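**Reference record**
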Amino acid sequence: MRSFSSMESSKTPKLPLCRETEEMGSCCFSISMVALLILIHFATLLNSSLAVRELLGTQTNTEFIRTSCGTTTDPGLCMTTFSGYASKIQASPKLLASTALSVTLSTTRSTSTVIVKLSKSQGLKPKEIASIRDCLEELKDSVDELNRAFAEMGSGGGKSFELRMSDIETWVSAALTDEDTCMDSFSGKDINGNLKTTVRRQIVKVAHLTSIALAFVNRYAAHP
């Protein structure tokens, strides 16, 4: 029979093996942690780089809008209206002109709806009713012309670039004339002051947006 001491001595070689296994496990864990930290570090750097790039792109796009608006008849309205479209427009004169036409068309339609509601107000005098009716007719023409201009801007075939832009400029100019004519309908002294103020405020905004759109269209036509 083997003695207790000999049995203990026979187990002794196994202890270094256990320590070696533990050390290898600890080493592998340390390497894994280092690798994970490196991955996290690079992911953070990548995200930071993308965020900086996106910020710089946004600033560049906004500056393009600001510079473009600076040459229009109403830079404040222009910047307020189109700065929110900076990421869509980027620095594209075509997208700027197209967006301006789209926004102006939508605003003109909304304004027409407001004036239709005004036409149903109680107590309007015959002259006021006639003025509103004339204005609505002009706005209807303006919507039609702006719609044609916007559709033509998105059209790619059939006509030459010069002819397409000439048609667009003609339609937008006609829309602006219609809006001015609408405002003239409320220039008489026999028009209620509140009604005149309300309508003219609506139409002035539409006319300014149309003028801005025309400026952007003209610029794109000259420098496509």
Q: What stands out?
A: Residues 142 and 175 are 4 Å apart (CA to CA). The chain is about 85% helix and 0% strand. Residues 4-67 form one domain.
